[in-house]
Amino acid sequence: MKRVLWFGLALTVFAAAASARAQNTAAQQSITLYAPKYAGDLYRVSVDLQDAAYAPRLRFGDVGYGLLRVGPEVDWLEISVAQDRRSAFLDLGPHAWTDSFKVPWVEPLARLKPGEERQIFVDSSGQNGQDGRDGFGAGNGRGLSALPSTGPDQGYPTETPRRAKREAGVRTSPNMLRAILGHIYVLHVVDDRRDFYALVRIESMQRGDNCTISWKMIPAPPPPAVSK
Question: Is 203 helix (H, G, I), strand (E, B) or coil?
Fold first, then answer.
């Protein structure tokens, strides 16, 4: 089954490796984020990293948990794509705070022009067939083209054109990343008032219910060199 949600213009995140490293001496904070039990239960969904507190109910914080559920995949982190937000984040993989690793520059989102909106999508269409044909749940599910008949002797083609295979599972716009135990994420938080970097680590998680994160504020890594 395919489910795709589109809202407005493209949201993209670009990153280039830089030489900055995690600052293990920085102050470390932690909080537990909870997936909402129902639509109005949004008190502990997201956190304001600088304030080290839950965001107010009617305003999404810098990073949140539990708002996306797609089939069996129920553990996601999310950042806001509100009009004044230009934040972006990346999954750096499994790391402990004592590890030494490179922190990349994360390009913030472009400013929106009047009337523009960011694009958000969730695609759970699954994996293409082994030979590149659409697999179960993809396309129209019949293995047939959606082209109409062009004459009395021409019906639908017997099969769809072969396509490049892609990974199974859910694909999303870059404002959503899977919440994975032990992974560290780099956030570049940018809005009309703030511009800062933070590292966020998932310390514990109860599937589909809550996750405890720790985080550190870090200096901004140097931007990638611009070729002349």
Answer: strand
Give dist(CA 228, CA 202) in Å, integer.
40
If one counts the domains in the chain, the total is 1
DSSP bridge pairs for 126: none
pTM: 0.71
Are 118 and 8 in contact, with CB atoms under 8 Å apart?
Answer: yes
Contact between 190 and 13 (Cβ < 8 Å): no
- The verdict on residue 69 lying in a domain is yes
Radius of gyration of the chain (CA): 21
The reported pLDDT for the residue numbered 154 is 41
| Local structure of 181: helix, strand or coil | coil
The predicted-structure confidence for 159-193, as pLDDT tens digits, reads as follows 445 555 555 677 888 889 999 999 999 999 999 99
Strands 210-218, 195-206: pairing is antiparallel
Let me know if residue 150 belongs to a domain.
no
CA distance 58 to 143: 45
